[in-house]
Write a structure and sequence with these properties.
The complex is a heterodimer of chains A (about 240) and B (about 260). Chain A is mainly beta. Chain A has a domain at about 90-245: Oxidoreductase, molybdopterin-binding domain (Sulfite Oxidase, Chain A, domain 2, Alpha-Beta Complex). In chain A, about 5% of the residues lie in helices and about 35% in strands. Chain A has helices spanning about 5, 105, 135-140, and strands at about 10-15, 20-30, 65, 90-95, 95-100, 110-120, 125-135, 150-155, 160-165, 175-180, 185, 195, 210-215. In chain A, a hairpin with a 2-residue loop joins strand 4 (about 90-95) and strand 5 (about 95-100). The longest helix of chain A is centred in the middle third of the chain and has 7 residues, at about 135-140. With about 260 residues, chain B is an alpha/beta fold. Chain B has two domains: about 5-110, Elongation Factor Tu (Ef-tu), domain 3, CATH 2.40.30; about 115-250, Rossmann fold, CATH 3.40.50. In chain B, the strands form two sheets. Chain B has a six-stranded antiparallel sheet. In chain B, strand 3 and strand 4 (about 60-65) form a beta hairpin. The radius of gyration of chain B is 18 Å and the shape is globular. The two termini of chain B are about 30 Å apart. Classes of the chains: A mainly beta (about 240), B alpha/beta (about 260). Chains A and B meet through loops of A and strand 3, strand 4, strand 6, helix 5 and strand 11 of B.
Chain lengths: ~240, ~260
């Protein structure tokens, strides 16, 4: 199930042989969905009208979202101040270490650049954000894994944050460990030095300050998933909270 | 930071419900509180928020999140809304909404930025502007339950006129020797003001906040710069990051616009 391809009308991949950089450009293509309501018809707010509709291409905006030009910060606690000299990233299955990289080693891995829209569960969406990092596919490759060893992962982060994901949502160019935003190191408040990037799901799945990805045979809830947020988080299906 | 201290995890779908405006309180020049009647409200915990959804005459819908400012003990649910001048939803809520009007709402949402009297103190609350709303729910809950756990509110506002719930907070502190309310006014101070007159900084937190040895439960809500600064300073002052819970407000802060 390739959700990335399903949600995008155009997936263009150019391989730049000289630098070894993949460029993946995607554009959302869904028509605008209306939210459903338990009431027969919602109360009308007289005089309330859109201020953005004219400028906003609705087929790029998931239901219930609005476009922002800024880059809001959301996190449950203090921003960890992480020195790249002390940073490592690990892949793990049960108690087994599948691969571990220092910052310098990670930086020397094959780099990919992605231009994509991002959607936060708190309702803002941001179009055309550019990220650079190492794709999940490339990580598996350098760890010597022909196949993902389990169907689910838990991302573990500095500060104790966790989030769970199906591996099927990370492979096929859909997920990466990002280390650059708009060509520059990611600011600590935005998840630097490295964050998970899974842009076709609500942005809490793109965990900030990621340090370890642990494969799991069975799905488990991460931090927000155990606090009433949806286990999967597809913005186009408006899966914000448990039961949506 | 784990989900184990979570409370009120919804187990069924949060349905949209009609909310009726029963009372409107003008809090400041830019801020109003909407007191809402929600027939089937399931209750909430102090610190939680709701999503609201407005539907225009042409069917256009917009959703936003607002923290709940009222304690669970109150009959009506209070949302405190700051007018964001270029916003789509908040100018409507502030300028156009009238008593008896209805809109849709679902919640409560969020089980982390939550404090109940069962979690005890000391409680250290740090707010900027309309970030006071979820912290007010905690203080109101503490008072309604007649719990006198040590509590501190450090509240940053632009001017005296911009302090939301000023009279209520002052009266609460006068009645309760275990509650301290400290205001800092960052832009304009009235004549004779002897309190802080700068943004929340490390020295202020060192002076005002409960020391790390007392293991306070810390909640910070405000604009992103305030939350980033205050939480970083508190970690530098020796507070464990795991005792510090944060929430953001404002036009680029996620909640409320």
């Amino acid at each position: 199930m390739w959700l990335w391809a399903r949600d995008a009308c155009a997936v263009r991949r150019n391989h730049d042989g000289s630098t070894g950089v993949w460029v993946i450009v995607t554009f959302g293509s869904r028509s605008r969905c209306k939210g459903t309501t338990s009431m027969d018809s919602p109360p009308i707010s007289r005089g309330f009208r859109s201020k953005q509709q004219e400028q906003t291409p609705q087929n790029r905006l998931p239901p219930g979202q609005y476009v922002t030009a800024g880059f809001p910060v959301l996190s449950a606690g203090p921003t960890p101040q992480i020195k790249v000299q002390e940073w490592t990233f690990a892949l793990q299955l049960g108690g087994t270490l599948l691969g571990k990289w220092s910052w310098a080693e990670f930086e020397s891995l094959h780099q990919t650049t992605i231009k994509t829209d991002i959607h936060c569960v708190t309702k803002w969406s941001k179009f055309d954000t550019t990220w650079q990092g190492v794709t999940f596919d490339d990580l598996l490759k350098v760890a010597g894994l022909a196949e993902p060893p389990a169907p689910y992962i838990m991302a573990h982060c500095d500060g104790g944050y966790t989030t769970n994901l199906p591996v099927a949502d990370l492979v096929g160019g859909q997920g990466m460990i990002a280390t650059r935003y708009e060509g520059l190191p990611i600011l600590p408040a935005h998840g630097g030095p490295a964050r998970l990037l899974v842009p076709h799901l609500y942005f809490w799945k793109s965990a900030k300050w990621v340090r370890r990805v642990r494969f799991m045979d069975k799905d488990e809830h991460g931090f927000w998933e155990s606090l009433g947020y949806h286990n999967y988080g597809d913005p186009w299906k408006e899966q914000r909270y448990d039961g949506d | 930071m784990t989900g184990t201290e979570a409370a009120a995890v919804p187990t069924r779908r949060l349905e949209w419900q009609p909310a009726e405006v029963r009372k409107i309180v003008v809090e400041t020049f830019r801020v109003k509180s909407l007191l809402l009647h929600i027939p089937d409200w399931q209750g909430h915990l102090p610190g939680q928020h709701v999503d609201i959804r407005l539907t225009g005459e042409d069917g256009y819908q917009a959703q936003r999140s607002y923290s709940i400012a009222s304690p669970p003990e109150d009959e009506l649910l209070t949302l405190t809304v700051e007018r964001v001048d270029n916003g789509e939803v908040s100018p409507y809520l502030i300028d156009d909404l009238r008593l008896g009007d209805q809109f849709e709402l679902r919640g409560p949402i969020g089980g982390y930025f939550v404090w109940t009297v069962a979690m005890r103190g000391p409680l250290c609350l740090i707010a900027g502007g309309s970030g006071i709303a979820p912290l007010a729910a905690m203080l109101r809950h503490r008072e309604r339950r007649n719990v006198r756990a040590t509590a501190l509110l450090l509240y940053s506002s632009r001017s005296l006129e911009d302090i939301i719930y000023r009279e209520e907070l002052d009266a609460m502190a006068r009645r309760d020797p275990n509650l301290r309310v400290i205001n800092t006014l960052t832009r304009k101070q009235p004549e004779g003001w002897t309190g802080y007159r700068r943004r929340i900084d490390k020295a202020m937190l060192a002076e005002a906040c409960v020391p790390p040895e007392q293991n306070p439960k810390i909640y910070i809500c405000g604009s992103t710069p305030l939350v980033e600064d205050a939480s970083r300073f508190l970690v530098e002052l020796g507070h464990s990051p795991l005792t510090i819970k944060t929430e953001r407000f404002g036009p680029t802060g996620g909640l409320a616009s």
